[in-house]
Design brief:
10-stranded mixed beta sheet, 27% helix, 4-stranded antiparallel beta sheet, alpha/beta, single chain, Alkaline Phosphatase, subunit A, 14 helices
Length: 536
């Protein structure tokens, strides 16, 4: 009987009409940079965010949406549905002086959508590699790229990083006047208006707002000039100390300027939403919004994550649980809230399922899961397996880790010296204590041991040459005058990845000997871990 049911279902599937390109939803993914949990109106914030409030009222709040604590790893997870620990981009962001990027054999989300007939565009901040053309957005599935390869390019011209111009259109340096946040909104709106109307579009719109160094138009500066900084403590030693030091030094609070930057970002979002309405396509457009990590609640950041604990760079909830919204009027009832765990790794398979697109990743296994049934139909999606995140920002050797599921969350602080390392564990019943007040590590040592062991094993998957915390470049390093010409072209580089120094026959033994130090072989997961282990 079961056999006949399987055959019948297969026949029904083959006979069912596939979605045509015109029927598929358009998709816009908007990503804020360091937005705080309590900095939006629908969370009771004191900054005007009518556009985000509108998305919350008309869509679904993804109330347990998690990202990594810092930006490059989150962007890598979003684009690949893979764990940044495997990709070699977990502990720190990709700095301008680094050669690292995401392995060209990794499949990116826009590649799948483009193969399914979508027009693909990226407008904004990349931060996933700039040294090789193979890392460039135009090589990762985006037909149109308008923006910058790095972070911290400033909000007004000349849009530079380390003194080098960093604003381009498809590899060609461009000059633009105006406020960067509004420029991005204008370009997205232009792309929508001038699109091929016979094909759906996939747009990725990562803002630099509200990342430091903060700046805003004069009218918005005046609007928030008298705003008082009434933020409660973040309950994070490093974050709260920076605020105290700032006050002792007589420095003004960053909160008013931060509010102006958030307000401007919300206005830019509103411009794009208005364009969708004017084009008559709002109903069949999926708009996903989230922040790349928790708000920068330290002194110069200005964000507020309370009642969540901590902020950017930390694995407390305030660093990894972020504001997130999803709207699709044609399919989703307004004003909903999903309380199940969703991560940046889950976006690719989830949106692909919603749009009827087959993920094209056939080289490596996805770490993300499809949560479209949970969003669209309210189906239960329990999380028994662990989610892992890490950060080594900003101090080298000062790590924070976490492992969590629906019930438990372990936070580890690791201080690594030249001759020693200290580990501090915090265990929470996260389902009952989402704001992390009650440390149960001494009550449940067996749970701590099990979860700490899982974190230990997970860390062994990291490529040995992956990112680390580097606040300054190698001595004497110089930036180019123009970053658009920096990536080495495909014609100038080899067809495949470099083999490295060890001869091929020695690679597996050396990988085994490296043990917990990390992997020499890409995407290696040991069969066992006991000081080493051969790759599966």
């Amino acid at each position: 009987m079961d056999r006949y049911r399987v055959v019948l279902l297969l026949i029904c599937y083959l006979l069912a009409p596939a979605l045509t390109a015109a029927e598929r939803p358009n998709i816009i993914i908007m990503v804020a940079d360091d937005l705080g949990w309590s900095d939006v109106g629908f969370h009771g914030g004191d900054i005007d965010t009518p556009s985000l409030d509108q998305l919350a009222a008309e869509g679904v709040e993804l109330s347990r949406f998690y990202t990594t604590p810092i930006c490059s790893p989150t962007r890598a997870a979003l684009m690949t549905a893979r764990d940044p620990m495997r990709l070699g981009v977990a502990y720190g962001v990709i700095m301008p002086w680094m050669n690292i990027g995401i392995h060209p054999e990794e499949h990116f989300m826009p590649q799948s959508f483009r193969a399914a007939g979508y027009q693909t565009a990226m407008v904004g901040k990349w931060h996933l590699g700039h040294a090789l053309q193979a890392y460039h957005p135009n090589q990762r599935g985006f037909e149109h790229f308008y923006g910058h390869l790095h972070t911290e390019v400033g909000y007004f011209p000349p849009f530079g990083n380390q003194g080098g111009k960093d604003f381009q259109e498809n590899g060609r340096s461009i000059e633009r006047d105006g406020y960067e946040t509004f420029i991005l909104a204008d370009e997205v709106s232009r792309f929508i208006r001038e699109r091929d109307q016979d094909k759906p579009f996939f747009i990725y719109m990562p803002f630099i707002a509200p990342h430091t160094p903060l700046d805003a138009p004069e009218d918005l500066k005046r609007k928030y000039a008298d705003m008082e900084d009434n933020r409660l403590p973040a309950r994070s030693k490093n974050t709260d100390e920076t605020r105290k030091i700032n006050k002792l030094m007589g420095q003004p609070s960053a909160r008013p300027l931060y509010a102006a930057v958030v307000d401007a970002m919300d206005q830019a979002i509103g411009r794009v939403l208005d364009t969708l309405e004017q084009q008559g396509i709002a109903d069949n457009t999926i708009v996903l919004f989230f922040s790349d990590n928790g708000g920068a609640a330290y002194a110069t950041g200005g964000a507020d994550n309370v009642p969540l604990r901590g902020g950017k760079g930390e694995t407390w909830e305030g660093g990894i649980r972020v504001v997130s919204l999803l709207r699709w009027p044609a399919r989703l009832a307004p004003g909903q809230r999903m309380d199940q765990i969703m991560t940046a790794m889950d976006v690719f398979p989830t949106l692909a399922a919603a749009a009827g697109v087959t993920p094209g990743n056939d080289r490596f296994e996805l770490d993300g899961r499809d949560l479209w049934p949970a969003i669209a139909q309210g189906k239960s999606a329990p999380r028994q397996d662990l989610v892992f995140f890490a950060s080594e920002t900003p101090i080298r050797g000062s790590f924070m880790f976490t492992a969590f599921n629906d019930h438990w969350k372990l936070v580890q602080e690791v201080q690594q010296g030249l001759l020693s390392a200290t580990v501090t564990n915090y265990l929470f019943r996260i389902s009952e204590d989402p704001n992390e007040y009650n440390n149960l590590a001494s009550v449940y040592p067996e749970v701590v041991a099990e979860m700490a062991g899982a974190i230990h094993y997970w860390r062994t998957l990291y490529p040995v040459a992956g990112t680390r915390s580097e606040l300054v470049p190698p001595p004497g390093w110089r930036a180019p005058k123009d970053w658009s010409g920096y990536p080495r072209s495909l014609a100038e580089t080899q067809d495949g990845p470099a083999p490295g120094m060890p001869p091929e026959f020695a690679l597996r033994p050396l990988d085994f000997q490296h043990g917990e130090a990390g992997r020499l072989i890409y995407n290696c997961e040991p069969y066992e871990f006991a000081g080493g282990g051969l790759c599966k």
